[in-house]
Amino acid sequence: MVKEEQILANRPDNTAFTQQRLPAWQPILSAGIVIPGFVLIGLTFIGIGVALFVTSKSIQDMEIDYTGVETDSDCYKCTDKDVKNCVCQLDFNIPSLIEGPVFFYYGLSNYFQNYRRYGVSKDDTQLSGDLDNFKTPSDTCSPYDTDGGKPIVPCGSVANSMFNDTFKLYRHVNGTKKEVPFDGKGIAWWTDYNVKYRNPDVKPLKDAFEGTVKPLFWPKPAYDLDPADPNNNGFINQDFLVWMRRAALPDFRKLYRRISQGDYARGLPAGNYTLDIDYNYPVMSFKGKKKVVFSNVSWMGGRNEFLGIAYLVIGSLCIIMSIVMLIVYAKFKFPEED
Amino acid sequence: MGMHFSTLRTLISRYCTGEENWVDSRTIYIGHKEPPSGTEAFIQQRFPDNRIVSSKYTFWNFVPKNMFEQFRRVANFYFLIIFLVQLIIDTPTSPITSGLPLFFVITVTAIKQGYEDWLRHKADNSVNQCPVHVVHHGKVVRKQSQKLRVGDVVFMKENETFPCDLILLSSSREDGTCFVTTASLDGESSHKTYHAIQDTKAYTTEVEVDSIHATIECEQPQPDLYKFVGRINVYMDNEPVARPLGSENLLLRGATLKNTDYIYAVAIYTGMETKMALNYQTKTQKRSAVEKSMNAYLVVYLCILISKALINTVLKYAWQADTNQDEPWYSDRTEPERQRHVVVRAFTDFLAFMVLFNYIIPVSMYVTVEMQKFLGSYFIMWDDEMFDEEMGERAVVNTSDLNEELGQVEYVFTDKTGTLTENNMEFIECCVDGHIYVPDVICNGQVMPGATSMDMIDTSPGPGAREHEELFFRALCLCHTVQVKEEETVDGIKHGIHQGKSTSFYISSSPDEVALVEGMKRLGFTYLRLKDSHMEILNREDEIERFQLLEVLTFDSVRRRMSVIVRSSTGELYLFCKGADSAIFPRVVSGKVEQIKARVEHNAVEGLRTLCVAYRPLSPAQYQEVCHLLNGAKLALHDRDKRLAEAYDVIEKDLILLGATAVEDRWRISASVCSNGTPSRRRSLSLSLCVCFPRLQEKAADTIESLHKAGMKVWVLTGDKMETAVATCYASKLFHRNTQILELTTKRTEEQSLHDVLFDLSRAVLRQLGGMTRDSFSGLSGDCTDYGLIIDGATLSAVMRPAQEDSNSGNYKEIFLEICRNCSAVLCCRMAPLQKAQIVKLIKASKEHPITLAIGDGANDVSMILEAHVGIGIMGKEGRQAARNSDYAIPKFKHLKKMLLVHGHYYYIRISELVQYFFYKNVCFIFPQFLYQFFCGFSQQPLYDTAYLTLYNISFTSLPILLHSLIEQHIHMDILRKDPSLYRDIAKNSLLRWPIFIYWTVLGVYDAIVMFFGVYFLFDNTTFTSNGQLMTANTQMMFGNWTFGTLVFTVLVFTVTFKLALDTHYWTWINHFVIWGSLVFFLVFSLLWGGIIWPFLNYQRMYYVFMQMLSSGPAWLSIILLIAASLLPDVLKKVVCRTLWPTTTERIQMYAGFGYVPTLMDNADKLYKGQLSEFTPMASLHAPSKAGRPRRGSGSQRNAPNPRRSAPFHKKLMFTRWRRTPDYRTFAPLLGFADGSRHSTQGRAYGGTGPGTSV
Fold this sequence. Notes:
The complex is a heterodimer.
Chain A: H1 2-10, H2 31-58, E1 61-65, E2 86-94, E3 98-99, E4 102-109, H3 116-120, H4 124-127, H5 132-135, E5 146-147, E6 150-151, H6 157-160, E7 166-173, E8 176-179, H7 190-196, H8 205-208, H9 238-244, E9 252-259, E10 267-268, E11 271-279, E12 289-296, H10 305-333
Antiparallel strand pairs in A: 1-12, 2-11, 3-10, 4-9, 4-12, 5-6, 7-8, 7-11
Helix pairs in contact in A: 2-10
Chain B: H1 2-15, E1 25-29, H2 62-71, H3 74-88, H4 95-129, E2 131-136, E3 139-144, E4 153-157, E5 165-171, E6 177-181, H5 183-186, E7 191-195, H6 206-210, E8 214-219, E9 230-236, E10 239-245, E11 250-251, E12 256-258, E13 262-269, H7 275-278, H8 289-319, H9 323-326, H10 335-339, H11 342-357, H12 363-382, E14 396-397, E15 411-415, H13 416-420, E16 421-432, E17 435-437, H14 463-478, E18 483-485, E19 505-507, H15 511-522, E20 526-531, E21 534-538, E22 544-556, E23 561-568, E24 573-579, H16 581-584, E25 588-590, H17 593-605, E26 608-618, H18 620-635, H19 640-651, E27 655-667, H20 671-676, H21 700-709, E28 713-717, H22 722-731, E29 740-744, H23 746-751, H24 754-777, E30 787-792, H25 793-800, H26 812-821, E31 823-829, H27 833-845, E32 852-856, H28 862-867, E33 870-874, H29 881-885, E34 888-890, H30 895-933, H31 946-956, H32 958-967, H33 973-978, H34 994-1019, E35 1025-1026, E36 1037-1038, H35 1041-1063, H36 1069-1091, H37 1105-1110, H38 1113-1140, H39 1144-1153, H40 1161-1168, H41 1176-1188, H42 1203-1225, H43 1238-1246
Parallel strand pairs in B: 15-28, 15-32, 25-27, 28-31, 29-30, 30-31, 32-33, 33-34
Antiparallel strand pairs in B: 1-8, 2-3, 2-4, 4-13, 5-11, 5-13, 6-7, 6-12, 8-9, 9-10, 14-34, 16-17, 16-27, 18-19, 20-21, 21-22, 22-23, 23-24, 24-26, 26-27, 35-36
Helix pairs in contact in B: 2-4, 3-4, 3-11, 4-31, 8-11, 8-30, 12-30, 12-32, 17-22, 18-19, 21-30, 24-26, 30-32, 30-34, 30-35, 32-36, 34-35, 34-38, 35-38, 41-42, 42-43
């Protein structure tokens, strides 16, 4: 009796799991499933690809370099390091209407915002408005943490190197230059503006910066970035926010302004334009380029032919593969039946 | 001065080095009493107390010791180094990324080990504190077990467990014996008898025991449970009497007293010096072939890692040669950085790159592999089919490190007795001087084979022979070590032997002896008991004869015989000896040797185990001489075994042969085989034999056949006679009718020199080998003869003998191996236990380094079990030593089949997928990060966020592969079992070969490139943005570098998970749960991680990155596109390979997919077993057309060399199609492109050559 109980106790559980007999679905990647599958995927991809490609083609994208490398460029004079407060002009022509809303970008190339050392050189706590870090910035900001014993606010390389060219666009209407209004609101991430970056809770804002110095490169202190709009100062200045989001690659564009107001709600009409540039930002030392871009966007974002082409390529590959598989299959299978 | 030094030295040696280690023997003063003065100097040796410490750690040393042990492992150490580098230098990723997983792994392991140790502490405490009764000044006092000292006299009652190793002084039984069960020590539950020595057994009260004045000298503790030598000096009237002590006097810690009211015993080994404690030591760890491949891959990846870091460092400095690239104005260095020497900077950069890429070798791989092995081994233990009803035993896994090795076995070395055969002995006949005696055939109503032609017992021979007959039966009744077991206590009443014979039965460590004594009982001579060293026999006339048992010359496997010396009631002295024929015949001086030899040979051929019996009358003078010899040897403390063996050798000579016995070992062979198998004749063996199948049971033959089909070479290693073993081999289908037998035995080497024999054999084998390859190409190899080799122990040792001056002899080993390699079955008979291990070692070391498996049940198999790559113990009748020392223990030999063919196969497939996949997913993971360095100025900018770096291997992609590697079944287990040839598919570590590894790595690199550059082109100089509110173009947000990384990472997680999904063939709800679950987890985690400002982080770089990314249409489109593009080539490769060059596995999967479901297995099985007659028309229609042209059509060039492999499937396939036609039709609409003709699809299905994609 006892022994029998012992035997029973020692007997393994007879469940589907312990006996490795769980019910299971056993799919097989056979040609019969894969070939139609490939055809289906291929057709879908080609469809998407065509749609993307067409959409992308419809997006207008105008890029103008204003670095001033060429001597005949108006901005050539500004490339000299010693020239301060240089203003240059860029004349250009828009051949046909760029449909609105039009986005105005500045672009930099060979500019490594993704340097690791550069990227870590900021103080997130300071940027979220913590006054303690105003006095003692994080040492990650080094060598832009203090200047002559006084803390730099905002500290760090990223903030220090903020892009500071400014632009004014004029449209030639009947021989007169008419300024095109820029809309600088909402060009940064909503969450950055409202949550992540915060000014210290001090009114006026200037008092919070008591005892600190502005970044070395900056012409104006942070609390005075936009004299026109008090809500666009300090760490929640839109241009600052745009700059602080580091670009992924060395050639990048950053949104500068939107053109969507007044007469230009429908877009930038064809015609001649002049761009007045406050040329401050040095790029020649590292062989960089500066550009301005006018572009509109579609439901799939900005102009991007890659995605459409990639879809077309992969889609066609699928179709070709399915045909190859079919041939292989037919050649090696059908004679067997005779 | 000199005096001082010597004293000092003594003190130092005693207290520091532990004097006991240097002293060969120890002296124990029973009851701590000094011996009478003058005999010896009283030096109390120091012994440890009886505290058992099985725990490894104490509260204080746990942390350092455990850490030290964990970091001794190379992998952990590597990760520790990486972590330290991250702490010390300025590295791209925070130390958390490698510290956290490492901390996690170390902590989990530490907690597990700590918990186990805590349990051990608890167990130790309960053992150490349990009360023990000690005789102290004539009184029994209680003591804590741990306070027991060497020399204490202990009082034990029935059912108590011995607290330390004790020498029995006296017991409640008059004869000074006690019964003990050692179940907890070695698993043997039978009761063993232990003896008190003559001089102390009378002291049976505490007062009396306290008066014993004696010292014990014995060897220092050693772990062998079955060996003990010692000597007791009993001082009677100040006159010492020395008596030998052996293992029959030694009660081991852990054993339990049974059937004896109480005993007195003296402690000799205590605490950690007890034999049980000495046996705690673990065996050396075996490493599996998969682990070796894994380590090789690791080295490759380490090289990749280092070269990646090197390339990047070099490129960085090349690129930075331009100062503007080195330090553009917007990213100034700090002053200390500038001043650092360039070499230091470069080295730091190199380390930083190493850190950045170190995830390519993840901590979690080790953890996952270990978890897979540990958890996976449960499926072996849980397997209901490996549960034995009779014994109530299930498979036991002693190590989980070798699960996958079970799928790689090439050589199986099996013991015969108890493994292939049941070790269930039955007395068949005996032969005295050529007259044959068969016991009344009533035992189980079975007619003995050939019984009709026997002389029955009543046809008594003449008077001279009569005397021999009487002696023979008495010899068998006396010459044994069988004990008479009284019936267990029933209702408190003990049934002694006097209450009837039926209540007692015989027990012995050797089933043969029991069979013999029981056989004698059936022939009329009943052994009653051993009382007061008199053996009592009830003879045919119901008279009790008493023989005084003087000496027992115990059995050992070297001598292969045992003897007893007895004095009959009339005062005559006899030595009775029984043993193997080879051990007896050389020592025989008279008797009817020829007749008996013939009978022995006849019986051996029938597969019976034979023993010869001889005697030698001793004169009192001779007896005195014998006694002197034996006592001299027995009292020796050194080399006692050797001296005993020499003494035995002298004593066991000049024997007179009486007769022989035959015992049948029941066979473990399936009944179905018996009904099918006609008695087959062996043609080639020089002895022309008729092999009959005896009563069969238990599937040993089926198992061996399966192992053969699975491509394994099965060797039977046995100590038995050649003829017996050969018969077993035929019955167990080790040899077939058409097996060509090669003999390499003493018989042949006597005729020819070993040299010639070896060369003859190898020539024969090699000639055949040539023929075989030709055969296999013509597709007829299915019936080609294979070779079987028989070798005996003597010849083997000649072959193995190290090379002599003679240059030829050195090659013997090679030639022998060459012959063996070409034999599918080898039988080694007359093997000593150590030779078994030698053979295993020889094969292990041969040039292919095959994986070996040894299986056995007895103590004599332990050495080979330990030697082989995989050691399997059978929980047999000869005790548990094999099972204890094995890696896996199974109840029966037949379970080996499922163990290897199913579990081994599964685990190999699973772990190889696990290893390959792990490397693959980490290439996918890290290679984009490597590529990113080219676009970030080699600045070690990580592509992914810290959280992703940390959690990728720990949580996003870990569970699916772990579960996959636990429950994946590429083929149904019934098919695996029914078709052993599938095992060949995975032989030789085939799934972890370099080409496959390279394929996975290349696939990983390809996927990484697709992912990285896909996203790169999306970002590059375009306005890839989120437009905030989907489908409106009003707002727009630019993406930064973290979005770039997150996009790559999202594609990555989906791709590697889908890749696993594509490889999964067995989708249970668990797979669905973990695969989709971990993807969902990734999404939820990402949303959460980016959705909150985490207060404990000093950066918020991931804030809303994931959501913003998902709000962008192109991100979605690119995710879909890139996943598809990454998976495409693998899918294509799978389909094309499946169509053009399907492996056997894929074919089976294919037709399993078409309705060959387990419910049909039973029917299919019957058919598959060869009863295709019902379907012959079908077979004749389709089979020849297939078999005849294996290389046509599908161009299955790869199949051509092994058409044998695919042959069985045609049959199955045909059957399946035929039966399942209606169901099969339902697949027709799925075909899509295929012609709708049912006829053609059906026809195609019959075509078996490439059904892998027969749609």
